[in-house]
């Protein structure tokens, strides 16, 4: 089944070349089935890249998905054109009276800031509170995961001695967890962040359960026991080349940065990186859409 996106969205051409099943709005209106309505709060600076990464995963399931993009009204993006934002993005004021079957809140490269110092923190808190009543299940990624743990459960982040960047091995802790159905006992996933959260704090919170972690990269997938919230501290949505682009960007800024761990063949940045996590990325998003969105959301929101 397809993912439904605006006809002129730049990601459309990329996805069509990758044979991802997409559908424009006109064709979708002719179908009688009810699509899942997914809202993506895109906090990443290069929004078009993140759109493509997430749509690639949402578009590879047996479900028709209707995607809306959300931006913050209290922060002006410097890396995405105003035209793109006005054409494809809504603000909280546009959606606050609606219900959504699922929502994704992305990361943002602002880990060096305290949450309260982020210029859109008040707005983000309003949105996160709204998700508890207006969204069936919300998926939080990287900094978005840390923000959710802090806002909803009072679990803070702490700085790492150096950036956690690379592709790490993770263990599955709960074989019965539907989100991880079909996962290997050990699987790879990329991380890219300067901060982390405490496993002990997660274990102490009765509403949360740790579903997967890495000995090197720490807690990875955290979920609430009711399945309404999932926090993923890494980036399963990343393309094969994303960590390389970030590494080159940091180098050009003169930052003292290490080569991403277990990423470049032979640890040689001149060699093309290999994607080791693609299948688990598709599986996680498919499981989330099926078991925690499609199976749980009402056909008609009251």
From TrEMBL:
It comes from the Bacteria. GO terms for cellular component: cytoplasm. It is an enzyme of class 2 (transferase). Pathway: Amino-acid biosynthesis; L-methionine biosynthesis via de novo pathway; O-acetyl-L-homoserine from L-homoserine: step 1/1. The record marks 111 as: Important for acyl-CoA specificity. GO terms for molecular function: homoserine O-acetyltransferase activity; homoserine O-succinyltransferase activity. Keywords: Acyltransferase, Amino-acid biosynthesis, Cytoplasm, Methionine biosynthesis, Transferase. Its EC number is 2.3.1.31. Substrate binds at residues 163, 192, 249. Belongs to the MetA family. Transfers an acetyl group from acetyl-CoA to L-homoserine, forming acetyl-L-homoserine. This is Homoserine O-acetyltransferase.
């Amino acid at each position: 089944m397809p993912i439904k996106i605006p006809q002129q969205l730049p990601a459309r051409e990329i996805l069509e070349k990758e044979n991802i099943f997409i559908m424009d709005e006109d064709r979708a209106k002719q179908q009688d089935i009810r699509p899942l309505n997914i809202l993506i709060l895109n906090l990443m600076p290069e929004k078009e890249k993140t759109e493509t990464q997430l749509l690639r995963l949402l578009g590879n399931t047996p479900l028709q998905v209707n995607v809306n993009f959300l931006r913050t009204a209290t922060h002006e993006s410097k890396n995405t054109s105003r035209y793109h934002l006005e054409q494809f993005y809504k603000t909280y004021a546009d959606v606050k009276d609606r219900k959504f079957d699922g929502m994704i809140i992305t990361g943002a490269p602002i880990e060096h800031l305290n949450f309260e110092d982020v210029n859109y923190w008040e707005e983000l808190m309003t949105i996160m509170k709204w998700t508890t009543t207006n969204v069936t299940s919300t998926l939080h990624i990287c900094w978005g995961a840390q923000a959710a743990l802090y806002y909803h459960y009072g679990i803070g982040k702490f700085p790492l001695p150096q950036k956690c960047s690379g592709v790490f091995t993770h263990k599955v802790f709960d074989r019965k967890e539907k989100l991880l159905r079909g996962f290997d006992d050990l699987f790879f996933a990329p991380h890219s962040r300067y901060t982390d959260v405490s496993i002990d704090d997660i274990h102490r919170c009765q509403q949360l359960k740790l579903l997967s972690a890495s000995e090197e990269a720490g807690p990875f997938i955290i979920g609430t026991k009711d399945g309404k919230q999932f926090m993923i501290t890494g980036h399963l949505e990343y393309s094969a080349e994303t960590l390389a682009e970030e590494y080159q960007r940091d180098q050009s800024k003169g930052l003292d940065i290490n080569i991403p761990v277990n990423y470049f063949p032979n640890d040689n940045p001149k060699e093309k990186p290999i994607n080791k996590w693609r299948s688990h990325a598709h599986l996680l998003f498919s499981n989330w859409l099926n078991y925690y969105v499609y199976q749980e959301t009402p056909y008609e929101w009251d």
